[in-house]
Amino acid sequence: MPAEVDTGLATLSDQLLLVTVLLYVFAMIGYALHLGFGRRSVQQAAVVREHALVGAGTSVPEAAPVVEPAPADDDTAGPRWPARAGFIALVLTWLGWAANAGCLVTRGLAVGRWPWANMYEFVVAICLATVTAYLVMRHKFPQLRFLGAFVAVAAALSLGFAVRYLHVQAGPVQPSLNSYWVAIHVSAAIIATGLFTVGGVTGIIYLFRKDGRPSRLPTRADLDRITNRVVVLAFPLWTFAVIAGALWADKAWGRYWGWDPKEIWAFITWIAYAAYLHARATGGWRGRAAMVVQLVAFGCLLFNLVGVNMFLGGLHSYADIPGSP
Amino acid sequence: MKKTTTDDTTTRESAAPGDRPAVKGLGAVGWLRWFWRTLTAMRTALVLLFLLALASVPGSLFPQRGVEPGAVTRYFQSNPGTAEWLDRLWMFDVFQAPWFAAIYLLLFVSLIGCILPRTRVYLRELRREPPAAPRHLNRLPHHAAFEGTAPTDRLVAALRRRRFRVVTGPGWIGAEKGYLREAGNLLFHTALVGILLALGIGALYGYRGNVLIVEGNGFANTVAAYDRYIPGSQVSAESLEPFSFQLDDFKVDYQIAGDRPGQVLDYTARLSVHDSPAAAERDYTLKVNHPLDVNGTLTYLIDHGYAPTFTVTDGAGQVAFEGPVACLPQNSRTFASECTIKVPDAKPDQLGLAIRFLPTATEMQDGSWDSTFPAAINPVVQVTAFAGDLGLRSGVPQSVYLFDQERLKKMKRLVMMSEPVELGKSLDLPGGHGKITFTGVKEWAALQIAHDPGRLPALVAAVAAVLGVLLSLMIRRRRLWVRVRDDGTGQVIEVGGLTRTESGDGGFADEFADIVKALKESTAPEEPERSTEPAGRKGAPG
What we know:
The complex is a heterodimer.
Chain A: H1 7-37, E1 47-50, E2 65-68, H2 81-111, H3 119-140, H4 148-166, H5 181-208, H6 220-252, H7 261-279, H8 288-312
Antiparallel strand pairs in A: 1-2
Chain B: H1 10-14, H2 27-39, H3 42-61, H4 69-78, H5 80-88, H6 98-127, E1 142-147, H7 152-161, E2 165-169, E3 172-177, H8 180-205, E4 207-214, E5 218-220, E6 228-231, E7 244-254, E8 264-274, E9 281-286, E10 292-294, E11 297-313, E12 319-324, E13 328-329, E14 337-343, E15 351-358, E16 361-363, E17 369-371, E18 380-387, H9 405-410, E19 412-415, E20 421-422, E21 426-429, E22 434-451, H10 455-474, E23 478-486, E24 491-499, H11 505-523
Antiparallel strand pairs in B: 1-24, 2-3, 3-23, 4-6, 4-22, 5-7, 7-8, 8-9, 10-11, 11-12, 11-22, 13-14, 14-15, 15-18, 16-17, 18-19, 18-20, 21-22, 23-24
Helix pairs in contact in B: 3-6, 4-5, 6-8, 7-11, 8-10
């Protein structure tokens, strides 16, 4: 029974979290400088891509040739320092990522269990998953680098919120959480949430982005594609997380599905993301409408994450939020 | 049915009520057709999905009878007027409500109305050869051309190695792969229907019940033994698995030191189990997350509490009550608990005793007593006693844990919240009403026993759903054509490709480049260094 807590490691974990927040904040500043003062990529030779789906009877009624900024290189005129700020921000993000991971690992070692069993640990883990998702996606889609500012601000704010309102001392958890299902169910939920968060960020920018205006942000077509890619990755994971949760509930509570508030909202979130995937394939819903559906789904996800634990209770109220009964 | 739509939209789009006939003179069949087309349209399915999500929300806002019946009762007590109206709208049984059922049944009919035609189309597509090459391959989203000479069968072999389905014509090759995408899509949606059926099986043929057992007591799986028993409509009382067990010992481990004293570390219930009346006894250690399984009927540990034992001697010197009394915890951190003892056999008057049990009693600053730790370290009880008619013979059922407040007003109060009575000590009841002795502390465990024949089907369907959604979202359906042209100076090989999956073009570019490279290699004259480069270097999914 992991009753003994290594206080040294637990303190180290708390310190690492503060380091993480600071690094993310500095990274955010770097990204913002790059975004604000970097060169406008629209001046670059634009790559014309045809979006017509050949052989598709119901082809997408999009403005056929989409003008996209040339990826990767935008350094021909103007000062160099904003790009350098962007690079430093990237390095800081990686350092913050390492500190974030270290924070979780030390906490897990301190308490001798999986370090995502209460709300505080859960939020820290989701931030790690989100930043990981961003770093990996950025590697794949270079146009995403300007999203760094938004991801960093989301991560820094969430971690700040976690430290201020959710922090609990490292310690053991109630017996029902001492199960290998934590590793399966909660990990899947964390990774899916991290990916969905990136989709939430791209979705919000999509709504504010005006095409045809010079901007360093990715084009709407790109944002749409990337959002879809992220949701397509996260949706099966979320499905799996819900089903793993049902398997665990079957072991712990005597039923695999019992309409507990957390289960209801996981279900609603799942439906909402399914609706987004369907909307994207339905005439009249593509583009903006589908993106709104995606953001509604993200809202459900956030409510399930925070709101259900704080306002609705239920069997999942292990969240252990300080100040709540 | 159009055949050249993007595959995500094939049948749904064509079933959309866009080409609706004039309303006049539709006739019954026409209306049915119209209804069916509208119901199975993707737009309708989307609206039903939204409705289903929306309809689930009140289930999380109001307490549900199936989840926490106690909370529903409390809601009724605190706002009776609203509760009555909410109850009429099924707000306390959202997931059993007819309007909820209407939504999901319509959705599933719509789903089946989508799955069936799509399966038919898919089966036809499976047998069909890839389409002939279009005339101008350079108009396709992915296009490449290079010079080289190659016999067609070499190119065909290169494509087949990449598990393309290939067809050839005069001067062209057509190839297609990624058929598993639609298979996954159909599997996923069929699995959803499977999950619904499994839920239905569980609701009809499953049962569950709760029972509270004090240490030393036993349970036999019969309907009468349950405190609360919820059977499915097709469950007969005889079909219950005939097992029985005794709760030998119940133990809770608490965190003592550290900054979270009182945190539960582990629950352990030791049972002696008979799988059937004839079976030999076996020991089982019941823990959270480790239910007892007897032939698919599962017993879960879901709650616990204290059951102090008492002996009540009446005014005539007779033992009128003896044994444990299950107390309900009032505070989950300190386990200060309350219970009642009703002693109808006491002389000269019937006795009603309200007990406050404090597992670790500590005197507060104001002189009152409270518990400061959940374990029974310094257990005491405080007694409030009444004498008079308990009204048990009136035939109206009473709670075991509570007194009827109206009844108490008519009774004579003997003691009000006595000084703490320690273990082994007695409290004399004034007026010659006898005495109560606190003889011991036992614990009780609340168990849930459930049998759900839909569990395994649900698991199979869920695994199929995950598999299906993975296939349908990760695999791209892609087509490729090769034309060999002679432009006078030499042979030019043109390659064109497209994905039939929306927004699948991005990732296809790499694969396409890879395929073109492989085709180029298969045309190049035999060179010794070429053999180090295998053709299918970057394996494509599907």
